[in-house]
Design brief:
Layout lengths: L4 H15 L12 E3 L5 E3 L4 E2 L5 H11 L3 H14 L6 H4 L22 H10 L2 E3 L2 E2 L4 H10 L1 E2 L4 H7 L4 H7 L3 E2 L5 H12 L7 H23 L12 H7 L26
Parallel strand pairs: 3-4
Antiparallel strand pairs: 1-2, 4-5, 6-7
Helix pairs in contact: 2-3, 2-7, 2-10, 3-5, 3-10, 5-6, 6-10
């Protein structure tokens, strides 16, 4: 039997991979992730969410470190891996390290906050009672934009192990981001507390724990079929803008978003 150069190279790579105990993958790692158990995560796959303890997840996110996106994504995925979800074993095989890139607004660029990025990555993977979880994402993002964060109540701080005078002083007063952007969130906080962006470490760690907590609160309610009215609702100003500027309209100009408009554009 003869083989051309491409076939020979494929054969050699296959032998080398097998010798190393690895799995040869036809697709790039970001398109599909195959485990030694044979399960492959592919685009469109959904794993079943199971109800979690929001305080325990907040603690897991807080202690995970390695930046905001990783904290939220790893904190929730690792908790689901230990849950009674029928997909717990699959959650345990999700490579959460892929979420590390989102720290400080994507590798320090100050753009999309890692908490927001992690939420999208997570909801794209989850199912709630057999249905895609995507519809619940907007409530998390509106919560991030509108609420004064990080959470300051005693129960939350005790749960994550941050109820000390030293750590409270590092965080200072919670602030409203008013945007999904990292730099806007940090600037508002730094201005309010007379701090610099370089001081953000503890504040951002607790912010990630706060978002992980709220994600679980929302998803638990969704699992139980509870009314989510009042949690992360679109503001009246955004609704007013979208009355004319929607993705279906060509009026001055067509817009596709649910995020706060006035933060960047101003009213008219």
């Amino acid at each position: 039997m003869t083989m051309d150069r491409r076939q020979a190279l494929t054969h050699i790579i296959g032998i080398s991979g097998a010798a190393a105990g690895s799995v040869l993958m036809a697709n790039p790692v970001l398109a599909a992730t195959q485990t030694t158990e044979g399960w492959t995560l592919t685009v469109g796959d959904r794993l079943a969410y199971a109800k979690l303890d929001p305080y325990a997840v907040a603690e897991a996110a807080y202690k995970a470190g390695n930046g905001c996106m990783y904290q939220v994504f790893h904190g929730i995925i690792s908790s689901l891996a230990q849950s009674d979800s029928p997909d717990a074993a699959k959650f345990a095989q999700v490579p959460t390290a892929l979420a590390h890139y989102g720290y400080a607004g994507i590798l320090g660029e100050g753009s999309v906050c890692g908490n927001v990025n992690a939420s999208g990555m997570l909801f794209n993977l989850l199912s709630i009672n057999g249905e895609a979880a995507n519809a619940y994402l907007t409530r998390v993002l509106r919560y991030y934009e509108q609420e004064s964060l990080p959470l300051r109540d005693e129960a939350f701080l005790n749960a994550i192990g941050a109820n000390t005078d030293e750590l409270k002083a590092k965080v200072g007063q919670p602030t409203v981001a008013g945007s999904l952007l990292c730099h806007s969130s940090i600037t508002n906080w730094a201005r309010e507390n007379n701090k610099n962006a370089a001081d953000k470490g503890e504040r951002c760690a607790e912010l990630s724990a706060s978002i992980a907590y709220q994600i679980v609160v929302i998803l638990n309610k969704a699992m139980d079929g509870e009314d989510l009215a009042g949690i992360g609702e679109m503001t009246e100003s955004v609704g007013s803008c979208k009355a004319c500027h929607s993705k279906a309209d060509s009026f001055g100009p067509s817009v596709m978003t649910n995020m706060e408009c006035d933060t960047c554009h101003g009213g008219h």
